[in-house]
Amino acid sequence: MKNVLVIGSTGQIGSELTRELRKRYGNDSIIAGYIKGAEPKGELKESGPSAEADVTNPEMIANIVKKYNVDTIYNLAALLSVVAEKKPQLAWKIGIDGLWNILEVARENNCAVFTPSSIGSFGPSTPHVQTPQDTVQRPCTIYGVSKVTTELLSDYYFKKYGVDTRSVRFPGLISYVTPPGGGTTDYAVDIYYSAVRGEKFVCPIKKGTLMDMMYMPDGLHAAISLMEADPTRLVHRNGFNIASMSFDPDEIFQAIKRHKPNFEMEYDVDMLKQGIADSWPDSLDDSCARAEWDWKPQYDLESMTVDMLKNLEAKLK
Ligand code: AKB
User: Fold this and answer.
1) Which parts of the chain are coiled coil (predicted)?
2) Cβ atoms within 10 A of the Cβ of 153, count?
3) What is the pTM of this model?
């Protein structure tokens, strides 16, 4: 990776990934791509170059790639699962038509491409416990349909044209920096904000609903180390299972309560979110990522909770 374009640099993953890449590769070689209305601000804007990068406009992307001699694209443009269910055509336009544009630019300009997939690429007929790397997917949400298509289209561009495409299936990502917007796993971020603000948390997901989750530093490490991995070791390319923790709402509540004994939670289940969560795995088997590019997470529920509470307390003070 010499010059990197991060598309979606102001979103939940993009804002932290751009900073991390700038730390590792130098500020000037990481271009923060954004769409109108979501321009970078503050340190993200000042620390390096930025450019409007709308995935629905292939010429715009091609111009940035040529201007900055980009060799790697992190394509983070997507709607999250709950919003996508409400706007399925827009989800497809951004997630798939947009991806197709990126892959064509990458083919013509010899770029590597990372486009995240998700635990949302699995469906009700997937084995739910320790979901294997290669298994039935058949998701029942448009988010999942677009994520499976992302994996397949990216594999296709690798096999047919040799485009260096790679990706992971992200679990719910938890961070204190930029809040997610419109995901099924967002509750696991919101709960920390309520705890630090001293408010009772109203949980939209039923007790007993297990989902895979990950602390953002591990998610960033996965995205960067996969793109840096030796290609001769990769048996898979797109859609690596990665895992670090799996919990239900009661377990994360108890983990927070150990540090904030007065914290309270009640349930008010959101049927759309619950239906999506029920169709997703309880836990993933990430042995292929461990074997093919030495994936290893650092954080578990307890260490993440300590770090989240410490950083949110400083942020919300
Ligand atoms: C969502 O909940 O939509 C995302 C995801 C797990 O892909 N966080």
Assistant:
1) none
2) 18
3) 0.97
Domains of the chain: 4-171+214-241 (3.40.50.720), 174-213+246-282+299-315 (3.90.25)
Q: Which amino acid is it at 35?
A: I
Distance from the alpha carbon of residue 88 to the mean position of ligand 1, in angstroms: 15
- Which residue's alpha carbon is at the smallest distance from atom 7 of ligand 1? 118
Query: How do residues 193-244 score in pLDDT, each as one tens digit?
Result: 999 999 999 999 999 999 999 999 999 999 999 999 999 999 999 999 999 9
In angstroms, the Cα distances linking 206 to 3, 94, 266, 271 are 44, 31, 10, 10
Pairing of strands 211-215, 172-174: parallel
Q: Write out pLDDT tens, residues 270-308.
A: 999 999 999 999 999 999 999 999 999 999 999 999 999
Q: Is the CB of 183 under 6 A from ligand 1?
A: yes
* Contact in structure between 256 and 266 (CB atoms under 8 Å): no
Residues of the chain by 3-state class (helix, strand, coil), percent to 5 = 50, 15, 35
184 lines ligand 1 (CB under 6 A): yes
> Is 8 buried (19+), middle (13-18) or exposed (0-12) by CB count in 10 A?
buried
Residue pair 205/249 in contact by the 8 Å Cβ criterion: yes
Contact 29, 11 (CB under 8 A): no
Q: How far apart are alpha carbons 95 and 77 in whole angstroms?
A: 7
Q: Which atom of ligand 1 lies nearest, measured to the CA of 147?
A: 7
- With a 6 Å cutoff on the Cβ, whether 120 touches ligand 1 is yes
Q: Which helix (H) or strand (E) holds 265?
A: strand 265-267
Using DSSP bridges, classify how beta strands 211-215 and 245-247 pair: parallel, antiparallel or unpaired: antiparallel
The CA-atom distances, in angstroms, between 168 and each of 49, 75, 232, 288, 312 are 26, 12, 18, 11, 27
Q: Which residues pair with 173 in a beta bridge?
A: 214
